[in-house]
Every structure is written in structure tokens, then in C-alpha cells.
Specification:
Layout: E1 15-19, E2 24-28, E3 39-40, E4 44-49, E5 54-60, E6 67-76, E7 84-88, E8 91-95, E9 101-109, E10 113-117, E11 127-132, E12 137-142, E13 147-152, E14 162-169, E15 177-182, E16 185-189, E17 195-200, E18 206-212, E19 221-226, E20 229-233, E21 239-244, E22 255-257, E23 272-275, E24 280-281, H1 289-299, H2 323-333, H3 346-355, E25 359-361, E26 375-378, E27 388-395, E28 401-408, E29 411-417, E30 423-424, E31 429-435
Antiparallel strand pairs: 1-2, 3-24, 4-5, 4-23, 5-6, 7-8, 8-9, 9-10, 11-12, 12-13, 13-14, 15-16, 16-17, 17-18, 19-20, 20-21, 21-22, 25-31, 26-27, 26-31, 27-28, 28-29, 30-31
């Protein structure tokens, strides 16, 4: 068992993984490392299927999204799998084109990937998507749009250990991807770009919640080990990772996207992927600082400058620039200690971030991996500079940010910006970088 995997500050460790001829090639050298908040008992294990019938096994570090291990089998399954669900570290279920359900037993996935394929367990499995929640329930989506639930009663089940078929929904589940994020909790994407979560209660009744309305249509695969960690693969072979601060809240406003720190920028040629489930759990609600910051900031949208004294008594009804006062107020109100409340210059907050090793530079080649709750600093960090500061409340898959800032059009304003081109402040300055909360 691995110890708690939480956020920590460490030196940058570039990763170079090149597995020529294996079907998986990845080059990752992030200039600014990102860190996840999740409790994980193991690394993220992902099984995959290649078009020629071979299997792959990939290990991802849940702390930072870096690849730790990649191996590809020399033998093939014997048919082209249609759907795949990982049950545990060495057991995978797959369906065949003629509706057969088979179990793959992995012998080793270290120096080599060796496995055996069981006899046909059952027939009639016309599922285009499969996922296992790690807590006994296997979920499948049929070509007709049904969502079905099965009880799996053994680690290596046979025909008698997969049963209690239950129809969760008779139609309408026109999903492109499907992954389990926890006990009877699912996440899915659609061809139109929606990101959706489903929770299923003991009676088999599902609750659907839209996390995001667009931007997720490019993903061919979406997998999750739990803990609010999501991994999406694009058609060009890139793998990106996401963090959902509270995966059970039915909201996508607290999902962070690592713009310049992908798992891999190319090389994921598998057409099926499935992660070992339930190896990570989310942190408790008391540690969700970033979500608190975003909620506080969004709750102030529309507040006029005449009421800005609520953010700092020195605001004097808007007589002075107050964007930094608002930004520091969100952090202080979220419970963060040591916030520089006496610094009224936006660029001065950037200098404070540099001095405390909390500043992430943005340039044309690196986006700085902004996260929810970060301060957006317009203009270079300097103690007495002006500029502007916003608070990140959402990071979108297309790289745009939703931000909330004080002293914008004489009020607290919510905007969607492109961090490459956005300018603010009296001097119309570009974004230099982001400051992360010290306890998040």
C-alpha cells in the first residue's frame, strides 16, 4: 500500500519516455509541474488495446501526471475487442464483435505484459462501452443507448459471478465515453461535447448532472482511478489529465485542466483504454480550498465599487484601485493564512508569489497550468507595479479561463478570457503568470 499522495512542492523532474515499436510513445518535459490532490493507494494503472489485438499497460504517477512505466504485449487477444473494463490490477473484461464476454488474466505487467484469455463467459454482450466502479458494479452502454448495471461477485468472475442485470435507463444514453469515478458514480462525454456525471442509488435510479456543456467532444477515451482524477485521450494520441476538486458535487466549475503538463503529447495509439478503478479517493471537504475561493469570488459578481469596503476598509468606496483587495479577500475568506492584505498593487501580489515560490510563469511556450483559485497577474511581478489581478474560477478544455475580478467596469465582474491574449490594467498588460494558494 502506498502512503497518502497529497500536494507537495518539489523540484521539476522532466520525464522522457520513448517506447519505440510498442504502440505507446510519450515525451513529457513540463517546465512547471502540476500536483494533484487525491488519496491514492497505488499509481494509476491503465490497460489498453491496440488495433492489431495486442494489449498495453501504462502506469501514471497520480501526483503529477507523469508516465512511470509502459509495456506492450507480444501476443494478441485473438479478436478485436469492442469494449473493455478493468476489474483489478490483473483482471480485465472485454467484449468481442459477436457479443461474447471474455476475461483477460494478466500474469505479469512489469518487464513484459503476459496474459491469458478465458473461454467465452457469456454471449449477448452488445455493449459499446464498459466500466467497473471497483465496488462490485459493472456498467455497460448498449448500441441502443441503454445503461445496464451488473453485480460482479468475484475478482476473477466466471459466468455465475456476473449477474443481477438491472436496466438503469432504457434509452437516451448516447455517450461517446464512459468511466467510473467511484461507488456507483460515472462520468461520460458525448459527441456534442458535454461532460456528464451520473450517480445511481440502491434502487437503481440514476441522477444526471451536467458538468460542462461543451469542449469535451474530442476525447476518444476517458478513464478514472477515482479521487477526482480524469484522463482523456485525443485522436492525435495526446493524453491530458484533469482534477475535479469535488467529484461528488455534480458541478464542473471546480475541474482543473493542466494546459502545459499533459501525461503525453503524443503516442497513445490505443483505441480502447480502461483504468484500474477505486485506487484513489478525493480529499475531505475541509481541504477543498480552491473550490471555496471560486465559490466566494462568484458569489460577489455584480458588487459595485461603492460597496468595495467589504473587501478592505482602505478601499474608501472605490476611491483607490481595489482589484488586489478583492483578490486577497477571496483567499482570506476561504481560510488561507498569511495572505498579503497590505499589498494593494496587483503586480505586487505577483512579486509576493515569486518570493514565496508560489508563482507560475506564463509564456508563449508554457501556459503556466492555471488552476481554480489562482490569482491571474497582469504585468510582470514587481513590488510597486499596478497591473491587474483576477481570480480563476474555471479552466476550460479549450484553454480559456473564467475569471472574476474586482474593479472591472466599476464592479466585480466575471469574464471568459484567452490567457494568451488577454490584457488588463491601465497599461493594458498581458498575463505574466499565476499565483497558487499556499495551502492548496
Amino acid at each position: 500500500m502506498r502512503p497518502f499522495r497529497g500536494r507537495s512542492f518539489r523540484s521539476i523532474i522532466p520525464v522522457l519516455t520513448l517506447m519505440a515499436g510498442t504502440g505507446v510513445v510519450a515525451v513529457v518535459a513540463p517546465s512547471t509541474p502540476a500536483f494533484a490532490q487525491a488519496r491514492c493507494t497505488a499509481d494509476v494503472s491503465v490497460y489498453g488495446a491496440l488495433a492489431d489485438g495486442r494489449l498495453t499497460y501504462t502506469v501514471i504517477d497520480p501526483d503529477n501526471g507523469n508516465l512511470d512505466h509502459v509495456v506492450t504485449s507480444t501476443s494478441t487477444i485473438g479478436f478485436t475487442p469492442v469494449a473493455m473494463a478493468t476489474l483489478n490490477f490483473n483482471t480485465v473484461l472485454v467484449t468481442s464483435p459477436n457479443g461474447g464476454l471474455y476475461r483477460i488474466d494478466v500474469g505479469t505487467n512489469k518487464a513484459s505484459l503476459d496474459f491469458s484469455v478465458s473461454d467465452r463467459i457469456e454471449g449477448g454482450w452488445t455493449h459499446k462501452l464498459l466500466t467497473f466502479d471497483g465496488k462490485g458494479h459493472l456498467y455497460g452502454v448498449t448500441t441502443g443507448g441503454q445503461l445496464l448495471q451488473y453485480l460482479v461477485s468475484r475478482d476473477k468472475p466466471g459466468a455465475d459471478q456476473i449477474g443481477q442485470r438491472r436496466e438503469i435507463g432504457s434509452g437516451g444514453f448516447t455517450l461517446k465515453t464512459l468511466a467510473a469515478t467511484g461507488d456507483d458514480r460515472l462520468i461520460a462525454t458525448t459527441a456534442t461535447g458535454e461532460l456528464i456525471s451520473y450517480s445511481i442509488n440502491a434502487a437503481g435510479v440514476h441522477t444526471r448532472q451536467g458538468l460542462d456543456g461543451d469542449g469535451w467532444q474530442s476525447f476518444e477515451n476517458l478513464v478514472s482511478p477515482g479521487g477526482g482524477l480524469y484522463y482523456g485521450k485525443n485522436p492525435d494520441g495526446a493524453m491530458y489529465w484533469y482534477e475535479d476538486d469535488n467529484p461528488a458535487d455534480g458541478s464542473g466549475s471546480d475541474i482543473s485542466y493542466h494546459l502545459d503538463d499533459p501525461v503525453a503529447s503524443r503516442g497513445w495509439t490505443q483505441y480502447l483504454l480502461s483504468a484500474q478503478p477505486a485506487t484513489c479517493t478525493s480529499v475531505d471537504s475541509g481541504n477543498r480550498i480552491r473550490s471555496k475561493i471560486a465559490t466566494l469570488a462568484l458569489g460577489e459578481v455584480g458588487t459595485p465599487e461603492s460597496a468595495c469596503d467589504r473587501y478592505n476598509s482602505d478601499c474608501n468606496g472605490g476611491a483607490v484601485a481595489w482589484c488586489a483587495m478583492f483578490a486577497t479577500w477571496t483567499w482570506l475568506s476561504a481560510g488561507i493564512s498569511g495572505v498579503p492584505r497590505g499589498q494593494y498593487f496587483a503586480q505586487g501580489l505577483g512579486k509576493w508569489g515569486v518570493d514565496n515560490r508560489l508563482f507560475k510563469w506564463r509564456s508563449s511556450s508554457t501556459h503556466g497550468s492555471p488552476k481554480i483559485g489562482d490569482w491571474v497577474i497582469y504585468g510582470p511581478p514587481q513590488a510597486t507595479g499596478g497591473g491587474h489581478v483576477d481570480v480563476v474560477t474555471s479552466v476550460r478544455p479549450d484553454g480559456t479561463l473564467t475569471v472574476v475580478g474586482g474593479n472591472v467596469s466599476n464592479k466585480v465582474t466575471k469574464r471568459t478570457i484567452d490567457p494568451e491574449t488577454a490584457r488588463m490594467g491601465a497599461d493594458d498588460l498581458l498575463i505574466s503568470g499565476y499565483v497558487s494558494p499556499p495551502s492548496a
